[in-house]
Design a protein that fits this description.
Length: about 600
Amino acid sequence: MRSSPILRQGLEECRVYWENLLRACGDMGDLAEARRLHARVLASDHSRSRFIANLAVQMYGKCGSARDARLAFDDIDAPNVFSHSIMISAYAQNGHLVDAQRHFDSMLERNDVTWNAMIAGFGQHGALPDVWIFFSRIPARNAVSWVSAFQAYAQKGHLREAKSLFDQMPELSVISWSAMLTAYADYGDIQDAIALFERMPEWSIVSWNAMFRAYAWNSRLREAEEMFHQMPEWSVVSWTTLLRAYARHGQLHRAKVVFDAIAERDAIAWVAMISGYGQEGCVLEAFAMFSRMPKWNAVAVNAMATAYAETGYLLQAEELLRSVPDPNSVSWTPLVTALGIRGEAEKSKEIYDAMPRHDVVSKTAMLTVFAQNRHIDNADHLFREMDVRDSSSWSAILAGFVHNLGLPEARDVFGKMPSWDLVAWTLLLTANAHCGELQAAQEVFDLMPDRDILAWNAMLAALAQQDHGESFRALELMCLDGVNPNEFSFLNVLLACSHIGVLVAARYYFLAMAADHCLAPLKAHYLFVADLLGRSGLLYESEELIHSMPFAADDVAWGSLLGSCNVHLDEKRAARAAEKIVKLNPDISSPYVLLSNICMN
């Protein structure tokens, strides 16, 4: 008996209902909710629908459970090539690259979606040699193949190779233009981003958002605001990018104004506010925002747990995570990391051991905790036991040897890495610099295929510590290379000025921050200049700068002035500085000692 058109329409509408739920749940990343929803699907009339089953596999992959994705896949009556492609993506998204490769090899039929899933999966985890192998072997490349390969190189900082792929693309779309623009922006190459934006044949809302994000993510808030007002239309992404830019830079009042102005707030906007409050230590405001959120997802829980953990509310972070029906490893990782930062490596290991499962993310976090707390042998042991390693894992163990001054071991790890991204190059540079090998650090820097803001800052830091005069020349070369210096670049240059006592240069670079680069000096910049003024005998100017800076002066600032007063025998000013120090820190006696020395002299 044939079904009526009305019945068929009802069934299709019902299928659309389940389809929307499965997609939305995957976007939320809530594994517990995903399992509940899947149970409802299996009890419905669509339990044997291959299309719905494919979406269930995809949902589990996005929720971080390759195991559940595999169980859902195995329940499909006759999986097609799309089912296999989605399963490969679920493996790859969650770091199970060996399983993804094995599944791919077992397939009798493959299409471009399958090949692209492998390229994107290996690219996501920084396995660039594998990306190139699959990109080279793919029978017919389409736009997705080109963009996936290009993004894999761009995300790991290989901008030269990414640009080469971009230039070879047979057809450039809005997506490829915007992806290249985003790559420049992510590595601080604003000038190339601007040039590319101006070359684009047309600007869509995607390209506007990409250029706007480039300014916002690189501390160019003034230009970001100007571009925001120039945009022909604003999407949710536009509003959320502006909100996140303000939140990242600690301008929470402005971020809240933008948040209140968004008509339809998505989860990203809520999480941005929670994270912003957490970064500034405003944990009560973060919790208030979290409590107001209409529906929590895994990302929101992670953001709130991170806010608790990073502000020292470790018990609350643990209680929140334990209240979630099925927290994933990503949820627990911020607590593991926060305990490590506080020096509580043993407690961090307890939390790690109690986690329901370990993936490459949680293992890398624990590895980093060991390295940070001088347990480099434990870090090395954990690294050797990892069956799956991504670029972050390699970088973590490399950073461990760097921070523990293990230069031979760092060089050995670097030589064994499957591919080198900018993080790895920069860490090797830093390893040489920390061990006094400035010439070797310079050689590493010269060999880098590309240099981003982090690489330049690492070289500036090395020069500031050992070859102070070259720091000034390096800053000029950095600008000529099209990389805009940031606050830390100038911090290194001012450190070099402090080491050699060059007040004129320090004043020049301090003023150039705002005048030439639209950068607001941090407290450390003010303190370097104030210290140099004091050491040069300009005690009045030093005290005035401390008073005028837009930060509360701490005992370090007043201690620097007191030390200068001791050298230049300014008793009255020394007494004022000592009084400030004692008010801020009544338990220390050094101000009285220095003050008595001045009086005796």
